[in-house]
Write a structure and sequence with these properties.
It is a single chain. Strands 2-10-9-4-5-6 form a six-stranded mixed beta sheet, with no helix packed on it. A four-stranded antiparallel beta sheet has the order 1-3-8-7, with no helix packed on it. Helix content is about 0%, strand content about 50%. The relative contact order is 0.32. The protein is mostly beta strands. The chain is built from no helices and ten strands.
């Protein structure tokens, strides 16, 4: 069974930082490109960032480029998203995803 358990969300002030983690199991993590996506209340899902299976290539939505950094540790089957200079518009539930599966996500709220 594929499991994608995201953690690290919370309430942070504008300009603050958070690091999200996603613990993966049930598949060959090191062979699979991974993605972070988010969904804000009342809005559709938004792709945030992607990373190749070996971590050598990373991709970002324009809205987060320069502020977020995606990475992975294939030895630990874990995906990360470092989020800096957070803005209220970043408020959403963040999910880690493969092309077929998505976890429950973790809530990020940016507010003063």
């Amino acid at each position: 069974e594929v499991q994608l358990q995201a953690s690290g969300g919370g309430l942070v002030q504008p300009g603050g930082s958070l690091r999200l983690s996603c613990a993966a199991s049930g598949f060959n993590f090191s062979s699979v490109p991974m993605t972070w996506a988010r969904q804000a209340p009342g809005k559709g899902p938004e792709w945030v960032s992607g990373i190749s299976s070996d971590g050598g290539n990373t991709y970002y939505a324009n809205s987060v480029k320069g502020r977020f950094t995606i990475s992975r540790d294939n030895a630990k089957n874990t995906l990360y998203l470092q989020m800096n200079n957070l803005k209220p518009d970043d408020t959403a539930r963040y999910y880690c995803k493969t092309s077929r599966d998505r976890g429950q996500g973790t809530q990020v709220t940016v507010s003063s």
